[in-house]
Amino acid sequence: MDEKDIAKVKRVQQYALNMRPIMNKEALFSDETENYRTPFEPEVGDRVTIKFRTARDNVDYVFIICGSRKVLMQKAYTKGAFDYYTYTTDPLKEGTLHYYFEIYTGKQRCFYNELGVSKDLQEVYSFGIVPGFKTPDWAKGAIMYQIFTDRFCNGDPSNDVLDREYIYINEGVQRVTDWEKTPDYMDVRSFYGGDIQGIWDKLDYLQDLGVDVLYLNPIFVSPSNHKYDSQDYDYIDPHLGVIAEDGGECLPEWDNNNSHATRYIQRVVNKKNLEASNDFFARFVEEVHRRGMKIILDGVFNHCGSFNKWLDRELLYEHAEGYEKGAYISADSPYRSFFRFNNEHDWPYNEFYEGWWGHDTLPKLNYEESPQLVEYILGVAKKWLLPPYNVDGWRLDVAADLGFSEEYNHEFWRKFRKAVKEVNPDALILAEYYGNAKKWLLGDQWDTIMNYDAFMEPVTWFLTGMEKHSDDYREDMYGNAEAFVRAMIYQMANFYGPSLQTSMNELSNHDHSRFLTRTNHKVGRIHTLGADAASQNVNKGVLREAVAIQMTWVGAPTIYYGDEAGVCGFTDPDNRRTYPWGKEDQELLSFHKEAIHIRKSNPVLTHGSTRFLAADYQFLSYGRFSEEDQIIVVVNNGQEEKEINLPVWRAEVPKEAVMERLMLTLENGFSTVGEIYEVKKGILYLKVPPICSMILRTIKNK
């Protein structure tokens, strides 16, 4: 071949190179679901097949950088508009295996990781496989229901707290006889009488709603209505359980000494009442399980309460039969090491102990210096998972605060996980945490977290512009779909797949304002605006949009009791209003049942991949999909109708397809009447009304 021919060949090659298609980056996709990685939760020694998606006949090479190796992936098959490349790992070893992708089309190159397509390498956002890290299958995508027991239902008035039964934070506790009364600003010592019998009485209601898992705020012996100041981890509070032997006297107005509170001491120190309450709880859990539901308890292990029998600052146990002396009372107490005392020479009645955030009513537990305390708490964790109680997991209060250093914190939760999983490998360990929890979600500590950063906060900002306590309103965040998408993607990158699918996705809870109240854009709390303001100018259509997102997003949708019935409220304590039995918002209740039904009827909403399709001011759309099933969700939070050409092909909807609308929500209601829409060339054309959400599903070809 002479120089002229060589030059001609080079010109042809260059022409061919220039004619290469532009890389279709919108088609590139992979994630940590079982659609793109099998097995989803591998063990050490397993080989894992990893899959990557590209547009059909669009790329030259796909490499996977897996650990220290860079391997060319092989095209495994073509389906519809996509090519699928696969790679099977060597047998997995201990430790996390990180991986990401490198894609070439001609001279074009990009990377793909947890954040999606990137021009520059960002290894910190690599995908990860943690051999042996499994989260309970029953919790993946489960419908959870959070109950603040005192405010849900009073099933047994005989166990109600009585007026001045004891003194709590300098004043007598009070029994609230008006179930519909809104909470006072200082509400912690007010009791409405809700109990476990009340929950039992409403199990039919919860089943009909579609609940899979009950999450109960603390129910162990405690002097407060919220019970985050544990008095006795070994027993259910008889005020929530059974008072088998009553007696004694409440305190007269002139007496604020709890050592004289003989009615309270009889109720919560007498072992007959404690054992009867535990037995009753065991039967309750048995009934919950008989109905096919699970139950998780709230574990408050960072601190206890000043009433706690280990400390006994209130002198409730000092002269009680069958109890050791508390550490407040005696330097010789077997529980002295459970607390950190700052004055070692001030017994009896040593008040110089360390409190959580300085609160002397919340003594911080001293794990580092007390192996006995560690064993006791691990024993508590196991006790309630074992027969006869058989609960299904723990929610861990302020979990990252436990201990006096982060190093020890991780050490303790490793021990906790080992203890829990040894007695019940299928138990859930779910922690309260704000921020990036990845250090705790590496398979050796927590299973998952309450999902503030990758759910509650982004949804709240986008749909309402409100901070989750109703303490601030930001116009720049209201309807800001770009901020929503960015927050979701970045925060979800901090979860590995097993944690993400079990994350607790709430709109409201006991620590924040009710979501329905946030829709009125009122900044304030009950003591600044009054209780009535929480219900003024609320927008149920926006709540319906939020629930549509909640029921179609990855994770475990969790309803805070009463949200489904239209309960409003500013942040704590106003968010702890009673459930309005007989006065529920029936339309909202019906809507929640239908939304939950859609969730449970479409497994792709639990296990499917997630991909954003469109984002604009007050508008967003995403797909939940696998190769077999596709769900498309559309939200228009604006005041004007929106016309949109939606690229549903990105969510693996066939280029020519028919979609059925499963639900339409509007400002004044909702509909489940099916409407049919045609997809042409991978595009779905929609007219979306204002304050609206739509859930659509691809109709399979028969």
Pick out its properties.
4 domains; eight-stranded parallel beta sheet; nine-stranded antiparallel beta sheet; 15 helices; 33 strands; 702 residues; single chain; alpha+beta
Describe it.
It is a single chain. By secondary structure, this protein is α+β, with helices and mostly antiparallel strands. The chain starts with a helix and ends with a strand. Strands 25, 26, 27, 28, 29, 30, 31, 32 and 33 form a 9-stranded antiparallel sheet that branches. A hairpin with a 2-residue loop joins strand 7 (97-105) and strand 8. The protein is built from 15 helices and 33 strands. 49% of the residues are buried. Helix 6 (371-383) runs parallel beside helix 7. It folds into 4 domains: 3-132, Immunoglobulins (Immunoglobulin-like, Sandwich), CATH 2.60.40; 138-305 and 360-600, TIM Barrel, CATH 3.20.20.80; 306-359, no CATH class; 608-698, Golgi alpha-mannosidase II (Immunoglobulin-like), CATH 2.60.40.
Short description:
Helices cover 22% and strands 23% of the residues. By secondary structure, it is of the alpha+beta class. The strands form 7 sheets. Strands 25, 26, 27, 28, 29, 30, 31, 32 and 33 form a 9-stranded antiparallel sheet that branches. It has an 8-stranded parallel sheet with strand order 22-21-20-19-16-11-24-23. Strands 3, 4, 7, 8, 9 and 10 form a 6-stranded antiparallel sheet that branches.
